[in-house]
Design brief:
By secondary structure, this protein is an all-beta fold. 0% of the residues lie in helices and 47% in strands.
């Protein structure tokens, strides 16, 4: 079973960048689709981005498209979320998640993801 640990969150000013990694352990994550989700206070958890097992396909929610980039290094069992031009509305707990999938176009529905990290807080001040 894969375990996920996020890190690299923090408090930054609007316009800054962060690149939190999500490290997988327990077994190889290379056959897993990986996603980043976020949950702001008082709001439901929502998808941010996801990447297929090979890295061949990516998906971005409209509210981060052009600012965030998801990538993975299967040799290091790590997925990254490069977040540029951060806005105060990006403030949330960011979660890394995974599910076993060799599909080129895996799901964006959070309920398909059955392995979750503990989350990392990202706070963007104006």
């Amino acid at each position: 079973q894969v375990q996920l640990v996020e890190s690299g969150g923090g408090l930054v000013q609007a316009g800054a960048s962060l690149r939190p990694p999500c490290a997988a352990s327990g077994c190889t994550s290379s056959s897993y689709a990986m996603g980043w989700f976020r949950q702001a206070p008082g709001k439901e958890r929502e998808i941010v981005a996801r990447i297929s097992w090979s890295g061949g396909s990516t998906y971005y929610a409209d509210y981060v498209k052009g600012r965030f980039t998801i990538s993975r290094d299967n040799a290091k069992n790590t997925v990254y979320l490069q977040m540029n031009k951060l806005k105060p509305e990006d403030t949330a707990v960011y979660y890394c998640a995974a599910y076993y999938s060799r599909s080129y176009w895996p799901a964006t529905d959070q309920y398909k993801y059955d392995v979750w990290g503990q989350g990392t807080q990202v706070t963007v001040s104006s």
